[in-house]
Amino acid sequence: WKDVNYPETVKENFKILEDYISLCKSKNIKPIMFSVPMHEACRKHFNRKMLDEFYFLIRGLLKKHPDAAYFDGWNLPGFSDGDFWDITHLNLNGARKFSAIFSDLIEKSEK
User: What distances in angstroms separate CA 103 from CA 34, 51, 71, 111, one per listed residue?
Assistant: First the structure.
């Protein structure tokens, strides 16, 4: 994870995300983006420069599209080894736990 870097893929993915936001807005749908919790081992070894770039790009999208929302689950507390399939994917239990938290966040943001 330390040396993985695909700048062209990042550009392509953020273009797709930008298109998604524009499509949602054209249909009067509030765009909601999120990142799921990551296992401690993944967070520990993840390339910090890439993570900083990700957050920089997300902040830019939110500035450009202030009606969009982003929920950051990267460091969300309350998740243990038993909630992960591997270091980058939640298992069924973890997905249920995150879905409940995410649903609550959406409801609160709509008020």
Answer: 12, 25, 11, 13
